[in-house]
TrEMBL record:
Listed transmembrane segments: 32-50
Segments for region (Disordered): 1-21
Ranges of biased composition (kind: Polar residues): 1-14
Domain NAD-dependent epimerase/dehydratase: 72-338
Species in which this protein is naturally found: Hibiscus sabdariffa
Full protein name: NAD-dependent epimerase/dehydratase domain-containing protein
SUPFAM superfamilies: NAD(P)-binding Rossmann-fold domains
NCBIfam families tied to this protein: galE
Family: Belongs to the NAD(P)-dependent epimerase/dehydratase family.
Entry coiled-coil feature ranges: none
Keyword Amino-acid biosynthesis: no
Length: 416
């Protein structure tokens, strides 16, 4: 120790030294090693920073905000409604990122969208599960979103009663994950897919946005409706202390498909039993099932069958675009999206027979527990505030358009 320090003092050059003093070899070596270590350290630091920062890693159209371009994250964009929404957004020149785990959606629908809009910066697909918070946060840190349309969900009432935890996880918990990432990455706008199922079975029709939502005590409600109601509550609590612009859209029963026949509704065959009425009618018309089973003919309605409000998917996605355009910072808008007209199940089946030209066999069965007699909307708030109104209100016409796609897609998107 002593020696080496003495050595150092002997060799240290001074300002006034008139000549250079040669450093000893071991000192030179340790300086070089130090420098190498510093360069290596700095390089490693740069690599880490480049990997972490989207703005420093290879920038893409999706990773930076661009003036005049609104980048929308469409969760569940490989599904029925999400794919139709993405198609409409792309047509309107929005930049779209679809995130989907393909658990229920169809990659073929995304491929169709890609083929229609192949230009760079229009559409990207990210395969991810919204239950994976780390993956979700990575998506938000690598992309510059201006808005989120959160469609992704499991969405079958019957299934929710059999597997409620799956519904609370997939709907409520995943919405929390998306919301947290939106807040952390300052995404300013959320359009949330909710449902009339959050109202349970109200005493008064039509349903307005002021109709009390379901509480277990007063109105029967299934786990699907409860999970969506919880997600809504979470969003509303969050909104009280946030600048985010939020629109909650409560859809009624969605039917129909793209007017130009590019997309359709193609649920997994294993979900047929859970099915929605349009799917059941089309399956019967195609002979995949022998007929349709109508449950409950003794409700207090005109013809004894349940009454529902059927909204065409083209109108529904139009409501989303209007919601996006009208969304205001620090504001929450809640809207029913329905036609305001109730149609009986019998009426629906008759319209389906006409649309398909097939005399669908109907079997009448007793009521299914949990089905409500009558559910239809009062859509005057959305008409008044967002200037939206349903245009495709002719059941037969909507079903005819959907049938055209169904006829050539017997196997859904897997059809040749
Ligand atoms: N179809 C209707 O009649 C109706 C009515 C009211 C509300 N909604 C709501 O509309 C939304 C879309 O419904 P849809 O009919 O298009 O359903 P869908 O099953 O066709 O589409 C849902 C999509 O979300 C994806 N998804 C599900 N869980 C996911 C996860 N954890 N991570 C990533 N992706 C996931 C699926 O793969 C699928 O592509 C849902 O939120 C649903 O609750 C639908």
């Amino acid at each position: 120790m002593l020696n080496s320090s003495r050595g150092r003092s002997q060799t240290r050059p001074t300002r006034s030294a008139p000549f250079a003093v040669m450093e000893p070899d071991h000192k030179k070596k340790s300086n070089i090693v130090g420098k190498i270590l510093m360069v290596v350290g700095l390089t490693a630091l740069c690599i880490i920073m480049l990997n972490k920062s989207p703005s420093l890693s290879t920038p893409t159209h999706f990773s930076r905000h661009e003036e005049g371009v609104t980048h929308v994250l469409v969760t569940g964009g490989a599904g029925y409604i999400g794919s139709h929404a993405a198609l409409r957004l792309l047509k309107e020149n929005y930049r779209v990122t679809i995130v989907d785990n393909l658990s229920r959606g169809n990659m073929a629908a995304v491929n169709i969208l890609q083929k229609l809009h192949p230009q760079p910066g229009r559409l990207q697909f990210i395969y991810a599960d919204l239950g994976d918070a780390k993956a979700v946060d990575k998506i938000f840190s690598e992309n510059a979103f201006d808005a989120v349309m959160h469609f992704a969900a499991v969405a079958y009432v019957g299934e929710s009663t059999m597997d409620p935890l799956r519904y609370y996880h997939n709907i409520t918990s995943n919405t929390l994950t998306v919301l947290k990432s939106m807040a952390a990455h300052r995404v300013p706008t959320l359009i949330y897919s909710s449902t009339c199922a959050t109202y349970g079975e109200p005493e008064k029709m039509p349903i307005t946005e002021g109709t009390p939502q379901a509480s277990c005590k007063h109105f029967p409600i299934n786990p699907y409706g409860k999970a969506k109601k919880m997600a809504e509550d979470m969003i509303l609590d969050f909104s009280k202390n946030s600048n985010m612009a939020i629109m909650i859209l409560r859809y009624f029963n969605v039917i129909g498909s793209d007017l130009e026949g590019r997309l359709g509704e193609a649920p997994r065959p294993e979900l047929r039993d859970q099915g929605r009425i349009s799917g059941a009618c089309f399956d019967a018309a195609r002979g995949i099932v022998p007929g349709i089973k109508l449950r409950g003919t003794d409700y207090k309605t005109q013809d004894g069958t349940c009454i529902r409000d059927y909204i065409d998917v083209t109108d529904l996605v139009d409501a989303h675009v209007k919601a996006l355009q009208h969304a205001k910072a620090r504001n929450v808008g809640i809207y029913n999206v329905g036609t305001g007209k109730g149609r009986s199940v019998k009426e629906f089946v008759e319209a389906c027979k006409k649309a398909t030209g097939v005399n669908i066999k109907v079997e009448y069965l007793p009521r299914r527990p949990g089905d409500y007699a009558e559910v239809f909307s009062d859509p005057s708030k959305i008409r008044r505030e967002l200037n939206w109104t349903a245009r495709y209100t002719d059941l037969e016409e909507s079903l005819e358009i959907a049938w055209r796609w169904q006829k050539v897609h017997r196997d859904g998107y897997n059809s040749p």
